[in-house]
Amino acid sequence: MRKLLIVVDYQNDFVTGPLGSREAAEIKDRLLEKVRNFDGTVVYTKDTHNADYLETQEGKNLPVPHCVKDEEGWMLVPELEVLVQENAGIIYEKNTFGCIRLAEDIRELYEKETLESVELIGVCTDICVIANALLIKTFVPEVPVLVDAACCAGVTPESHRRALDAMKVCQIQITEE
Q: In this structure, which of 66, 91, 122, 144 has its CB flanked by the most CB atoms within 10 Å?
């Protein structure tokens, strides 16, 4: 049986950059520890935009340039970048909240072998974590999808909690390890 851990968008711009928060910085040690000790496959997503970000629908609704490909803010936090390199981690670049290609790959993996669970950690709970958790639950409804709340941070603590409650209703298991 195989387990997957998905680290969602734990990039500089969401931790110390223009969209960073105290809560995103505070989960770093727990998130890194979970990645280091995970008994399964770890994959990563990276929010990825181009120079024309402000002209996109997202950019018009959130006019804060961030995660522009190949810039410092687009990189995973340095400690996580080291782990990716050490473990030849798989990274999915995505230009929107959810990563359809990741969900499709998980469905394909599920069709080939037994998948015990898919767990998500990272940022932002209320945007990209919830979008990916719901996509994965949609693509592989019989696989347990988990979110470790202690390794996630939302835009605000309140929206983090609301997203966790919404995921719970959609049969996504919320843990606080």
A: 122
